């Protein structure tokens, strides 16, 4: 796995910005967004890409975003409305937003089906449960398009860790050994689950 190319941009001491340069094909593993840390900010930043396709009949997408994470709805392509519901992190105590339109392809008609970048508008804070679904436009059947109503969405789950959260080499070696041993001794029969 190779980390994407990044370029450091000057920012106030309390903030660090990273711009992603064109890189190799996307993969689903966590990637280092910026390995450098300043003396003031002993934090490390990583992200994981998630790409999902929603239709009007899809099961909603649910993201539980913890305190040290943020969710970026990076870009969307397709026809329809991307709806979001925002709850507290448990999903059961408080509904912050019951239903909101995060993206509407009609408002981006000039893109003619090309991908819309949302990075400045859709950085969602942590400690929430986000549910996304697609709504078709009421006049979708009258729109002259060969593409069915659907949304192709690119998310980035951003992680921020303190420098003290990093594993020591000794602990990492122990974990690696334990994982390799558990693969050797793990039951291989189908249908058996060990809890």
Keywords:
six-stranded antiparallel sheet, 12 strands, 195 residues, 9% helix, Jelly Rolls
Written overview of the protein:
- Residues 1-42 are annotated as: Disordered.
- Residues 1-18 have a biased composition (Polar residues).
- Residues 23-42 have a biased composition (Basic and acidic residues).
- By secondary structure, the chain is mostly beta strands.
- It has a single domain, classed as Jelly Rolls.
- It is built from 1 helix and 12 strands, in the order ββββββββββββα.
- It has one helix at 169-185, and strands at 6-9, 17-20, 31-34, 43-54, 61-65, 69-79, 81-88, 95-104, 116-117, 123-124, 128-135, 150-162.
- The strands form 3 sheets. Strands 3, 4, 6, 9, 10 and 12 form a 6-stranded antiparallel β-sheet that branches.
- β1 and β2 (17-20) form a beta hairpin.
- The protein is elongated and about 60 Å long.
- The protein starts with 5 loop residues before the first strand and ends in a 10-residue tail after the last helix.
- The model is unreliable at 1-28, 34-40 and 189-195 (pLDDT under 50).
Can I get a quick summary?
The chain has 195 residues and is mainly beta. The protein has one helix at 169-185, and strands at residues 6-9, 17-20, 31-34, 43-54, 61-65, 69-79, 81-88, 95-104, 116-117, 123-124, 128-135, 150-162.
Estimated radius of gyration: 20 Å
CATH superfamily: Jelly Rolls
Task: Report the mean per-residue pLDDT as an integer.
Answer: 75
Largest sheet: 6 strands, antiparallel
Structural class: mainly beta
The quaternary structure here is: single chain
CATH fold call: Jelly Rolls
The share of residues in extended strands comes to 35-45%
Low-confidence spans: 1-28, 34-40, 189-195
User: CA-to-CA gap between the ends?
Assistant: 31 Å
Kindly provide the name of the CATH class: Mainly Beta
The number of helical runs is 1
CATH architecture: Sandwich
Number of DSSP strands? 12
